[in-house]
Specification:
single chain; 509 residues; alpha/beta; 16% strand; elongated; disordered N terminus
């Protein structure tokens, strides 16, 4: 973080006060690194044998040693202080004891506990006051820094590249990595660039994606490598605009207030961009409607300046579901991809889903969309723009055939036959209704009309072949078929009637 030019409250700051004449016992090099620079929250005095129930973490404790008998267990005493989080121990000499007990000095040395002498002429209250003054000065400096930092990020927000400049200023003020992720969970900008290791960035990206998929406002802290990364979603619940990631350990209240200000400004900037995004989306939808006329002239001319050229034919036309929880995120993600590779992808809202156009070589993009956003993507056969409407119909047919996330190719649907395209819930419902009278008759009479009818139609309506397949007499087959005709109320002597019943049997499987 930015240097406030005020020494933070620590044992080193107390030792530096010449008026107190404090003296560190032993060499600083014998202590664990950073021991005398750890933040001190308060200075307290106690001569209890076990003061830990009345102490809080981060204190400097002062004592005159009244509690120590001739055979005092100094090791246990120091261990209790360390376990409670005491930063250092100050011993007031010449009050009760001459000098510092050797056993106490040895116990502190072995445990790595900083021990310092408070001379007789320095009252404990003076040490406590010095600690309080340092704490107050540090708090004032931090508040001053916070106000200055908020002013700096506010001024950065006024620049033409306001959002980027704001995040860069936040990274400078906190002296850490700051990343902005878009609504799809992709890293949009980072400061300083490439300063977060790839494994850490992958872990942060995965966590951001999980948070955004939930769709609710949330904050989280992720421990990656040797750093903590704070994550905060941007936008309102159900319409998240992205997330802000900050790789910094132990942000204090003042630093968090700066982050809160930046989060608010970033969310506002993204919401303001949303209005422009809706206007562009409406324009894109109009171009899709123009392409559906199978004449790309207008769309090519209108899109060239704003979006770049349309993908080169032959192209694949894809269609997403009409309703998707992350359709807004998909649109933003595609907008970024379209800007990065002009002419490699075009998209726009259609009547019942998002229409995506890619060159035949760009098929992998559709797989990435289906995987990233966990949706079904219907894909047409390769086509030219003069047959765009037919390709869109192919994509719709392929999309409606698949129920689990993934890319559904029309070519697979066509190879599966006409029935695969008819396999909708509506078609299956009609098929079940057609066969219901026969099923009910079989259940009531214990007959096998449905099985006989299925075998007879499958075997080209041959009574002989059906009898052999079912192990019954051909006259029995003839009688059952006649009974099925009466139950269905249909004459099965015509091809059309037979085809309809056979189709119903296949769809009902």
């Amino acid at each position: 973080m930015v240097d406030t030019a005020v020494a933070p409250p620590s044992l080193r700051a107390l030792l530096a006060r010449r008026d107190l004449q404090l003296r560190l016992v032993g060499a600083e090099d014998d202590l664990p690194p950073g021991s005398i620079d750890r933040p001190v929250r308060w200075v307290h005095s106690s001569d209890l044998a076990d003061p830990t129930p009345f102490l809080s973490e981060g204190l400097v404790l002062l004592t005159t040693g009244t509690q120590f008998a001739d055979a005092a267990d100094y090791v246990a005493y120091v261990d209790r202080l360390l376990a409670r989080g005491v930063r250092a121990l100050g011993f007031g000499t010449e009050v009760v004891r001459d000098g510092i007990p050797a056993g106490l000095a040895a116990a502190c040395h072995d445990a790595g506990m900083p021990l310092f002498e408070v001379p007789y002429r320095t009252p404990f209250i003076a040490v406590a006051r010095a600690g309080a003054e340092a704490i107050a000065a540090d708090a004032y400096a931090r508040r001053s820094w916070s106000l200055a930092a908020q002013r700096s990020v506010s001024l950065a927000a006024l620049r033409p590249d306001g959002l980027t400049a704001t995040l860069a200023e936040l990274a400078r003020q906190l002296d850490c990595w700051v990343g902005l992720f878009d609504a799809a969970g992709a890293l949009r900008t980072a400061h300083p660039a490439d300063s977060l290791a790839a494994p850490a960035l992958d872990a942060v990206t995965a966590e951001v994606t999980t948070m955004l998929r939930r769709g609710t406002r949330a904050a989280s802290t992720l421990r990656v490598v040797d750093s903590a990364v704070s994550l905060q979603t941007l936008g309102r619940g159900g319409h998240l605009r992205g997330a802000l990631a900050i790789a910094a350990d132990d942000l204090d209240h003042e630093a968090r207030s700066v982050v809160t200000a930046v989060v608010a400004m970033a969310a506002l900037a993204l919401e303001q961009q949303d209005g422009l995004g809706r206007a562009i989306g409406t324009f894109r939808a109009g171009l899709v409607q123009s392409l559906c006329a199978d004449d790309p002239t207008l769309a090519r001319r209108a899109a060239r300046d704003l979006f770049g050229p349309l993908p080169s034919a032959p192209v694949l036309v894809a269609l997403t579901p009409a309703a998707s929880a992350r359709s807004a995120a998909l649109g933003e993600w595609l907008e970024v991809r379209a800007q990065e590779g002009r002419g490699e992808v075009f998209f726009g809202r259609g009547d019942d889903g998002l229409v995506i156009v890619v060159p035949t070589a760009g098929r992998a993009l559709l797989d990435e969309i289906a995987d990233r956003f966990e949706i079904v993507v219907g894909c047409s056969a390769p086509t030219g723009y003069d047959a765009f409407s037919g390709a869109l119909a192919q994509a719709r047919t392929a999309r409606d055939r698949l129920s689990t996330p993934g890319v559904s190719d029309f070519g697979d649907t066509a190879r599966a036959g006409l029935l695969a395209a008819l396999g909708s819930e509506a078609a299956r419902s009609v098929a079940a209704g057609t066969l219901t009278p026969v099923r009910e008759y079989d259940e009531a009479q214990g007959s096998a009309l449905l099985a006989t009818l299925d075998a007879w139609l499958t075997l080209d309506c041959s009574h002989e072949a059906t009898a052999q397949a079912l192990g019954i007499h051909r006259h029995t087959v003839r009688a059952r078929v006649a009974q099925a005709e009466r139950v269905l109320g249909r004459d099965l002597s015509s091809f059309a009637a037979r085809a309809e019943v056979w189709t119903a049997l296949r769809l009902a499987e």
